[in-house]
């Protein structure tokens, strides 16, 4: 796993090298969002406001908002609407009520058409006002108020009857008549007190102002869909697929087992580092191009080029790069026990390493040609191997193997397989050369790289440097 910190430059590299793939997957996400919008029917929402006159506390307003969406009110609305397949339970999911400033309860209804949404909100407000009036009246039974009014009338009739009986009695001529009139007055007084207490304990009389709720006009017919709209679903699908693709690239980079440092590569091959060289020029390709529709599709999307390789750093002039190659050749001569030939092994698909190996072969041929100092003799033979099934030719007159790879291209298991293939062929890995890509600075006229007479071979062909 790579422990590199995810920085903005990493995200920029993904956008720059994977923009075709990101664009394609964003379009796929947009199509997926459009498909979801076809499965989800459009929804329209409108609201109506109910004013509660008088003085109300905040908790009382919250209670009224809960009453507006209670099952009793919703069931009454469902029965009045009589929509096919819509009962009180489903209707409750389409209704919301909230307490707003100024003693206002705002009731919102959602339906599949603007007309239905408007009718639902209006009917909800009407049923809420009617039900709240019954609650404030002390009962939810519509016949209780009628029975209470009948009781008041009966008490009034009893009071008038008592007055008639008192007038008909002997006006104080006997003790019995005085006692009867006194008892009748007591009974009439008791009835009056009962009626007074009944009026005082009636919530409708005490809070008549609160009981009169006002619907502030009909609900407006909605002109647009409620979120999420089709455009929002399409945009959300495109953004979601885009982000998932970026996160997938970052996760793959974090979980990558490709070796990036020179000590790790040398440890996987079980050898020592001879040196590092630079390769400048055209943009490197880190995967074989291949043929067929699959390879063409990969090239079209740009996924045949590694994105997690940092941009090549700027390098010095051509003379400085040539010095690096000559120093590597000199170290190889020092490591050879006797003058001989080395196999230069390059994994197939590593173009940076292949170009570095070809340059080493050319430099070795110049260093060991006629007139070379000390009569040095270094011969290099370039061989390409497939990391999936590495196979080297049997040992002939070679003195060992030189492996050339680029950092961040191969895993430890793949490089260990190359080392095992060398051992199986009876070849000893004498050293490692790590080749890195650089950007060549524009040189002055006449100071370009020196041309060599050796042709540029393909990976997998044998190339001899020097003299036999």
Automatic annotation (TrEMBL):
Membrane-spanning intervals of the chain: 21-40, 233-252
Database matches in InterPro entries: Bact_polysacc_biosynth/exp, LPS_length_determ_N
Keyword Transmembrane: yes
Residues of the Polysaccharide chain length determinant N-terminal domain: 4-67
PANTHER family listed in its UniProt record: CAPSULAR EXOPOLYSACCHARIDE FAMILY, TYROSINE-PROTEIN KINASE
Membrane topology summary: Multi-pass membrane protein
Annotated protein name in UniProt: Membrane-bound polysaccharide biosynthesis protein
Sorted UniProt keywords: Cell membrane, Membrane, Transmembrane, Transmembrane helix
Protein location: Cell membrane
Membership in a protein family: Belongs to the CpsC/CapA family.
Superkingdom of origin: Bacteria
Region (Disordered): 441-468
